[in-house]
């Protein structure tokens, strides 16, 4: 990825306000550089490994969505915050095992990593039981790296078509992670492929609301925005360098 440094460690509401403002300014500059409205890009804070006490400070500073890779961690935070912050939205952005689909169905507002019909069918069944619906992004592997989840770009049309009978799932767009490299051209190529895939699906009759591109993280979201990102997933740019337990 590109070498944009992590933000300073945020320990107060003022710190979070400052970091959020800096990220939003970067978003705005990137959008304007290609003639886009900054309001067309949604900031999705990635809150994995961030404890509840720090998240309360971030929420006070304006964080209104929690993006989590692990559904168990996301569910725990939902249980922690649902009484105090009923307005919060929850995004599960990492791979999901089918036996964990019940948790997503209980609380999540959106899921960014749908990569198989079997998982979609499991989610549909769980959502029916919970009487809920779920916005979903199809995850596409645009870098060709075996370490990354996601379908091939050429498989997106087939999966999207297969979702039509699953009325509890609301497909809204595509998600990807860029190539794991410092080469900007390779990073940009990952994002370009996702944008072009979305355009092809729209031309072929995708649902009207299928317009979103979830791509770009703390180190590369400016490039993603230049290539059409509508959702950028930013963690370290808001919270500072991630601190893992010893």
From TrEMBL:
The record ties this protein, via SUPFAM superfamilies, to:
PLP-binding barrel
Keywords per UniProt? Pyridoxal phosphate
Please name the CDD domains in this protein's record. Answer: PLPDE_III_YBL036c_like
Which positions fall inside the Alanine racemase N-terminal domain? 19-242
Q: Which InterPro entries match?
A: Ala_racemase_N, PLP-binding_barrel, PyrdxlP_homeostasis
Does Aminoacyl-tRNA synthetase count among this protein's keywords? no
Could you tell me which residues carry N6-(pyridoxal phosphate)lysine?
48
Note the PANTHER family from the entry: PROLINE SYNTHETASE CO-TRANSCRIBED BACTERIAL HOMOLOG PROTEIN, PYRIDOXAL PHOSPHATE HOMEOSTASIS PROTEIN
So what does this one do? Answer: Pyridoxal 5'-phosphate (PLP)-binding protein, which is involved in PLP homeostasis.
Q: Which family does it belong to?
A: Belongs to the pyridoxal phosphate-binding protein YggS/PROSC family.
What protein name does the entry list? Pyridoxal phosphate homeostasis protein
């Amino acid at each position: 990825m590109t070498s944009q440094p992590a933000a300073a460690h945020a320990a107060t509401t003022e710190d979070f306000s400052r970091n959020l403002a800096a990220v939003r300014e970067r978003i705005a500059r990137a959008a304007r550089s290609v003639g886009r409205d900054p309001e067309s890009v949604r900031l999705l804070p990635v809150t994995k490994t961030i404890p509840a006490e720090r998240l309360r400070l971030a929420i006070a500073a304006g964080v209104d969505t929690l993006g989590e890779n692990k559904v168990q961690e996301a569910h725990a935070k939902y249980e922690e915050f649902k009484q105090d912050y009923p307005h919060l939205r929850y995004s599960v952005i990492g791979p999901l095992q089918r036996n964990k689909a019940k948790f997503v169905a209980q609380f999540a507002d959106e899921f960014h990593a749908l990569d198989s019909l079997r998982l979609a069918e499991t989610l549909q069944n769980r959502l029916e039981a919970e009487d809920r619906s779920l916005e979903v992004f199809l995850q596409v592997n645009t870098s060709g790296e075996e370490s990354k989840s996601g379908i091939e770009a050429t498989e997106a049309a087939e999966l999207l078509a297969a979702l039509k009978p699953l009325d509890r799932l609301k497909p809204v767009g595509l998600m990807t992670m860029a190539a794991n490299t410092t080469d900007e051209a390779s990073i940009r190529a990952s994002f370009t492929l996702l944008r072009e895939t979305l355009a092809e699906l729209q031309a072929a009759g995708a649902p009207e609301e299928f317009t979103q591109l979830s791509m770009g993280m703390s180190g590369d979201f400016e490039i993603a925005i230049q290539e059409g990102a509508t959702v950028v997933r930013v963690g370290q740019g808001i919270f500072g360098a991630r601190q893992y337990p010893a």
